[in-house]
Amino acid sequence: MLRNTDFKPLYASGEDEPSDFFIDGLCNSKYLDLGLGYFRSTGFKSLAFGFASFIKNEGKMRFVINDSLIEKDKIAILNGQQQEEPDEEYEQRLINDLHHLMKTLSKRDEHFFNCLSWLIASDRLEIKVVVPKKNKVGIVHHKFGIFTDSNQDRAVFNGSVNFSEFALKRNVESISCEYSWEAQGMAKLRIDQIRNLFEKTWSGQSEVVRIISVEQVKVAIQNWFPKKTVKELIETERELLVKEVIKAPNSSQIEINRAEQLLANLTLNDLEDTDRQDTIPKLREYQQQAITNWKKNGYRGIFEMATGTGKTITALAATTELLKDKKRCYIIISCPFIHLAEQWMDEAQKFGLDSILVGESKLLWEDEVARQTQLFRRKKINVVMIVTTNASLTSKNFQEIISPVTSETFLIVDEVHYAGATSIREVLPENCPYRLGLSATPERYGDDDGTALLFKYFGEIVFQFSLKEAIGKFLCPYYYYPIPVEMATDEFAEYCRLSRQIAKYYASNKTKLKELAKMLSIERARLLNNSRSKIDWIRNNLQDKPIDFSLFYVGDQIFDDVKRILGTELNIKLHEFTSRQSRLKRKQLLEDFSKGELQSLIAMKCLDEGVDVPPTRVAYFLASSGNPREFVQRRGRILRKHDDKKFAIIYDLISIPPMEFIEKGKESDVYNAVCSAITKEYKRVQEFSSMAENRFDSINEMFTIADKLGLADIT
């Protein structure tokens, strides 16, 4: 405990060394909040000792650091030469700095980073980078910290120390310290002020600095320094203490005594709780059946499982079963989007599976993937797990690295319908013995050839678990309200013109005209999704509708108008969720939405696949699709279970022709166009209504419209 440690009120170079304070703090606390100044690799050596003890004590850290890691950046900032950059550029510069520093790391430096990687992978280290706000000159230069133990005793420091070797060992540096168990008067006030300063900076409330996200920096550290066990970290630190301090010829007796004390306290006893694996999720009966079917099919096949029913968990459990059977495997998991890949990494941790993220800049992954692949080829390691995006999977660099090991590879492709595309299909390794595809809708819409080739590669669907089976047990029930809204006269006229052109081109034997017909069909669908009448409905009908925890799916052409009405006219706390936001920004928006800080998210397609928003209570579909995959995915997003969520509500705005044309029925001279507009919409309404709690009421209005056109029996 902190209060049992022989702390000093002042640490200064040449007397009681500042590094001694940090070692004692790390060894005797469970929490460290640290506001760092200038932070260099040369400081890692001075801070490496003590981290293993902190980890063994189940410690947690929060770091606030400035955006400069190397000398040239510091000089540029101090001289006012560095212009304000976008957050992503700050983050990329930090990654470049780290990559540069890696080339000169010593054994002790590597130990420091291995400890950081363990803390990150175990969700025990959070890092935020601060930069001066616009028009604020100079480098962010906070240097303070708070150690806290399990009794809530605190040891607080403030001073001139920077985290470089020169600062901690060679400069004339000093820190003054306060201790909560003996603090009174001004000393107590200083502790409170330092704590408040850290929390204010951490929460982004500071008036002089702003926070930039460093998720990719954390990913880089984890990729470059794969997670070790606590036992390995302790053994390494003990080895370094002996070799670099106790037996080193230049060590002083004071340094030797301290190292021997650390060595005595840093034992391998009582590691069961610290080194335990996270609890592997318990499988549901249907998930276990899926795995059994896949194994019986020769470790090949496709799981067709409804959104929200645990495809990821099932696939990872299948991975552990394969490893039990085969002992040795090179695992590749490919996903269409980077946020999906990150979710896979998090879930894999629950199974004790460490992975390397391959996506975005190859600087983040190329060297480590190549190194791990070589170790696997030489049989130095038996398991490698790569989580990649489809784009990186198809890249030349990645294909060259993995080509020697594909005969021992287990390939999992999430949202496997994407793999039917030529660009992906052509790089799938033919000699890969173990294959698993995952999707709620594995068939490719409008692409029978791509679907056939997909099934040829992965094998048959070995397990199905439908939305109907899941609702009420694993997904929440829902109420469905289809709302017909009439297109404007000019919009329907354009719809009719496009329909005539499409029919003409499809009737042709010319391939180019058939392709043109497909393009016009997309244009016609956009017309339905962007009808101006939907804007009017939003303006006039939301006052008595639920808004908290709501999603709005909106067509691209009316998107800005709807967003303005929701935010400015109706004063709804919302934010758009589109490709215009960075990946990190979208992650923050989902967190704000989950906390209730945002009432609504308004999206086009970014919420279709792989984005978990369980708190969602209500969805407004202003843009829909005839593609079953898209509306199945959207419905699944809404139906995920969550605390205090008993059911979900879906409002579906259906674009229909003006009623005067519907009332004429077969007597209308544009009857075919009217039927075309109604048919696809009616099929979707039938599908959504069939599983809704209000299934009989929800279909009535659209059934009446369909019946007027002789379409009531269409399914």
UniProtKB/TrEMBL annotation:
Keyword Hydrolase set for record: yes
GO MF: ATP binding; DNA binding; helicase activity; hydrolase activity
Helicase C-terminal domain segment(s): 512-686
Pfam families per record: Helicase_C, ResIII
InterPro entries in UniProt: ATP-dep_DNA_Helicase, Helicase/UvrB_N, Helicase_ATP-bd, Helicase_C-like, P-loop_NTPase
Domain Helicase ATP-binding: from-to ranges: 292-460
Keywords, sorted A to Z: ATP-binding, Helicase, Hydrolase, Nucleotide-binding
Protein name per UniProt: DEAD/DEAH box helicase
Source species taxonomy: Bacteria, Pseudomonadati, Bacteroidota, Sphingobacteriia, Sphingobacteriales
